[in-house]
């Protein structure tokens, strides 16, 4: 139990709060710690994580199901609909599977669950008066539709040779380096887009749909308003600037869509008989959903620490965040 727990009036609201607080990527720490950096990235890429699951799905979809670029030179309903299915089906399997295991079957009970509460039913704040159905509608209806539209546009541009397309055989080192940097680019884009969405006017009319989820579940990840998704998925357009392979966009797509399923699932770890099997939820972002005006980005790039909006899980950070929120909305 953290040393500050007894002084933290909010502590009793958590079922589980990590004792180590909220770590940030040591790549940006000073003095440098090469071993810590190696361990950070080994943990991200060599285990079952919110990076490796989207990457493995991307490999399978690219080699077995994605239409060849030649077919995408002309905008046609057939291959665009296939793209939509290639978004909807993995999203449904991962989010639906985690929801079934964690919240219906209750496969690990309350073990490593952040919030004490269950997901909300019979609440008029949500579409269909139900948090899960609300999240499914905004995820599949809005999120996957906007993502598909952007992906189709980028593949169409690539197929017509209007932007450079990277080939693995020509530059394998650059190919792999760009693949490894995609999560970092995603974190950079997300911080600034997300910070913009917390402007009071955008928040009220757009981002509030996502923040209905104070207690998050797997379907909460990309449960966003149409306009928020229109901004959120602009992260894909980097592939029109930096030479990329279709597999880069495929991985980027699944990382952007499926990693939030894990980070919002509400449990720090997936477990069987209280034996931890894989990292799941993200307490860094769970704090954002509890206190709103903190942790706008990700732990991959410490923008929040640099700009004074970092919540590390302590009582002091809670008070600091509340003071910042009060000051922000008083303006």
What does this structure look like?
It is a single chain. The protein is mostly helical. It has one domain (5-330). It has helices at residues 34-45, 52-64, 77-104, 131-159, 172-197, 200-205, 226-232, 246-263, 283-291, 303-306, 315-330; strands spanning 269-272, 275-279. It has a two-stranded antiparallel ribbon. A hairpin with a 2-residue loop joins β1 and β2 (275-279). The protein is globular.
List keywords for this structure.
mainly alpha, two-stranded antiparallel sheet, 11 helices, globular
In angstroms, what separates the terminal alpha carbons?
37 Å
Radius of gyration: 20 Å
Structural class: mainly alpha
Query: Numbering strands along the chain, what is their spatial order in the largest sheet?
Result: 1-2
- The total beta strand count reads 2
Order of helix and strand elements from N to C terminus: HHHHHHHHEEHHH
Largest sheet, in brief, is:
2 strands, antiparallel
Strand content: under 5%
Mean pLDDT: 92
* Domain module count: 1
Total helical elements: 11
In the predicted model, the low-confidence regions spanning at least 5 consecutive residues are 1-6
Shape label = globular
- Percent helix, as a range, is 40-55%
């Amino acid at each position: 139990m953290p040393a500050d727990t007894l002084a933290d009036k909010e502590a009793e609201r958590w079922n589980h709060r990590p004792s180590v607080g909220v770590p940030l990527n040591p790549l940006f720490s000073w003095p440098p710690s090469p071993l810590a950096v190696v361990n950070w990235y080994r943990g991200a890429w060599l285990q079952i994580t919110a990076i490796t699951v989207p990457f493995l799905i991307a490999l399978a979809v690219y080699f077995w199901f994605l239409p060849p670029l030649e077919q995408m030179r002309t905008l046609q309903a057939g291959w665009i609909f296939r793209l939509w299915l290639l978004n909807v089906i993995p999203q449904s399997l991962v989010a639906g599977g985690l929801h079934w295991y964690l919240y219906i079957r209750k496969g690990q009970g309350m073990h490593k669950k952040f919030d004490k509460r269950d997901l909300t039913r019979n609440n008029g704040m949500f579409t269909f008066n139900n948090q899960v159905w609300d999240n499914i509608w905004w995820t599949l209806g809005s999120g996957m539709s906007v993502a598909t539209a952007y992906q189709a546009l980028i593949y169409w541009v690539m197929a017509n040779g209007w932007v450079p397309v990277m080939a693995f055989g020509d530059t394998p080192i650059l190919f792999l380096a760009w693949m490894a940097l995609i999560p970092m680019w995603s974190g950079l884009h997300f911080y600034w887009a997300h910070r913009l969405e917390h402007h009071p006017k955008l928040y009220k009319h757009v981002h509030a749909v996502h923040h209905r989820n104070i207690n998050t579940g797997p379907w909460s990840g990309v449960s966003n308003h149409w306009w928020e998704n229109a901004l959120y998925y602009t992260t894909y357009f980097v592939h029109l600037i930096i030479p990329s392979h279709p597999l880069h966009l495929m991985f980027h797509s699944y990382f952007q869509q499926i990693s939030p399923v894990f980070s919002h699932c509400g449990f720090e770890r997936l477990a069987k008989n209280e034996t931890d099997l894989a990292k799941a939820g993200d307490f860094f972002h769970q704090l954002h959903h509890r206190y709103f005006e903190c942790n706008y980005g990700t732990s991959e790039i410490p923008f929040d620490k640099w700009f004074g909006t970092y919540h590390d899980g302590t009582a002091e950070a809670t008070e600091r965040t509340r003071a910042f929120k009060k000051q922000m909305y008083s303006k």
